[in-house]
Amino acid sequence: MINCDYILERDIGKNEKRIFKPGNIPKELPNIVCIEGPNSSGKSTLLNILALSMYGSKSRKLNPALEKKIKSLLNSEYQALSFEVEIENKDRNLKIVSKKETNCQEINVYESRDGEKLRPLSPELFEDKYNLIYDIPSNPTDRLREFIIEIREEQQRYGNKVSSLIEKVRKISKEILETRDLDSLENLKNQLKKMEDDKKDLEKKRDHVKLILDDLELYSCYEYYTRYSISCRRLANTIQDLEKEAKSEVKLGSKSTSQYHDLKYNIEREIGKMDEEFQKVTPLLINLISKTQKNHLNIWDRTHKKLYSTVNDLEFSRDLDTEITHFTNELTNIQLREGNNPALKEAKVVSEIVGFLKRYEDSNLTLPDVNITLQDFIKALENKNTQNKKIVERYENVLSAKKVLEKIEKMKTEIDKELYKLKQLANLNVENSKITSKVSELKKQISNYRKDYEEDHKKYEFYYSQCVTKNINIKEMSSEEIDKKIREFEEKEYLLSYIKHDETKLQNDILKLKKGLKEIYEEISDKRIYIKDHETLIKEIETKEPHKYEKYYEDLQTLYKKAEHIRGKFYNEYNEILKSLSDEKEIKDTVDKEYLVQVSKYLAKRVGTFRHIDTEYVAKFVDLVLRQIITEEGQIVRFEDMGTGQSQSAYLTGLLNTKDDRRKIIALFDEVAMMDSVSLESIYKKFRELYESDRLIAGIVVQKSDSVRIFKI
């Protein structure tokens, strides 16, 4: 029994909605049934809802046109669907229930067996148990290749099972190897012995290297402590002697040098005073001397700038005396020329009178006849004298400039005497420079010896610290005792190749030996770990019981190789053949011919009995590349020669011929109007056969008719 109740609400525009429910086609239908009816009578809607209720939207085999329709029922914004579907098998011991609410996308499918309560079925679990076939027999002969997809999927499932078998065999093989394997045990024991021998060899090598290293370090302590101790003493004595010699030489020249520097300092101080006078007189000369004398003023300026170099040159510029004389003569001429000016004489007289009267300025004396006070009279005289002030100032500047030039000349005379003495002392310093050069050379030697001393002293301290580390009280040993120790090392043959090297090479040898010794210790440590691990593993294996499949180990390896070969066939070679068949491409000559034969037989089995023209045939081989069916009688029926209805019947029958697939079938066939009653009877016959054997739980065939007619098949 099939029970389908649904409500489909569809927006038809202009804010109008239309409701679709079961009507002419009743809610309850037989398990295998044919539905005839006119267009838009709800036939296809019923099949779409039934397919959707059985997870048809998630099926990988659905016809693309039908898939689009049923997904539209689920996902379209303009319509809303709710349904409840119930399918019960002929014996009523199996029930499938599917439900969907209006405002929910989720479809819930349940299963009940033998009257038990409903249990949910996921899409994956549903596909494992049930085979939903929903199709329109369009282009039936071309779609025979869709059976190739089923073969590929089935092949994938078998390939996965073979992969599981391979993993199981690999796991068991590993367990066998990890349990008490006598060959493995013997191999482990051999490895253990080799590692123990290697460890003993390494320990011998370690002891030998350690002996050489210890002796070389002791030898270097005695040898180089002594060597650098002697070197440091020798260098210290040399430095001391050189310092004494340098000190003696410095004493010889220090006295005259001191006098020279003192006198030089005094001269520099006097020249500084002379510079101050230059700065006083130069502005006066610029204002007083005629512009025609510009050349003399430039020489005077250069002489001024070279003033301080006099100390080093030990003499003044020769232009100094010349220019002093020249400017003194020029100033004398100005003095004589302007000294007889009446205005100057008047200004002098007025100045003398004003100076005299200012002593009585505070009295209230009034001058007779002119009737003015003494203060007013002094002011009147001063106002008159203002007119001649520039003449007076110029004359006084001439006198001042002459005095400064005279002073500069006297200062030069005195400094010249001191410069003569400085020159005498400078001659003495030439002799002292030889002493200075010798002292400088001595200091350089002392510096170099000190660097050598510092380097040797660092090494001395290094070797002394090595002696302390090795408990050698070397400072308490006599030189004879140390020499004896050194000779003892030099007599050891295993040290000869090292002792002949210089210190740097010897220290490098010691470093290499240390590095090598460290590596040997690490190797020994690794060997100890490996030995311990092997001993533990051997003990574990010896105490283990043999694996229950140990005697089948070789058989398991053979099975593993064969399974790997089969899996490769499924996943690679056979898949390539199926792809070529599906694409109707030419098959390579190198492929497995037997596999092609079996695929052809399988397709023939799916087609089964089919009608061509007026005769029924049983398919023996189906060749998708040549597009032909070879019958049991040996006849060839080409796809292009088959009638539409007959080819549709053959295709749909092929969909139902699934003897190797034990899942229960739900078959929904739409638009079979091209098949006549004889062709349809093949479908009905297959429905009845599958229904009676409890392989088919629901089968519906839909075709177009002028009126609704429903009849049990």
Automatic annotation (TrEMBL):
<feature type="domain" description="Rad50/SbcC-type AAA">
    <location>
        <begin position="30"/>
        <end position="245"/>
    </location>
</feature>
<feature type="coiled-coil region">
    <location>
        <begin position="378"/>
        <end position="459"/>
    </location>
</feature>
<protein>
    <recommendedName>
        <fullName>Rad50/SbcC-type AAA domain-containing protein</fullName>
    </recommendedName>
</protein>
<feature type="coiled-coil region">
    <location>
        <begin position="178"/>
        <end position="252"/>
    </location>
</feature>
<dbReference type="InterPro" id="IPR027417">
    <property type="entry name" value="P-loop_NTPase"/>
</dbReference>
<dbReference type="InterPro" id="IPR038729">
    <property type="entry name" value="Rad50/SbcC_AAA"/>
</dbReference>
<dbReference type="GO" id="GO:0006302">
    <property type="term" value="P:double-strand break repair"/>
</dbReference>
<dbReference type="Pfam" id="PF13476">
    <property type="entry name" value="AAA_23"/>
</dbReference>
<dbReference type="GO" id="GO:0016887">
    <property type="term" value="F:ATP hydrolysis activity"/>
</dbReference>
<keyword id="KW-0175">Coiled coil</keyword>
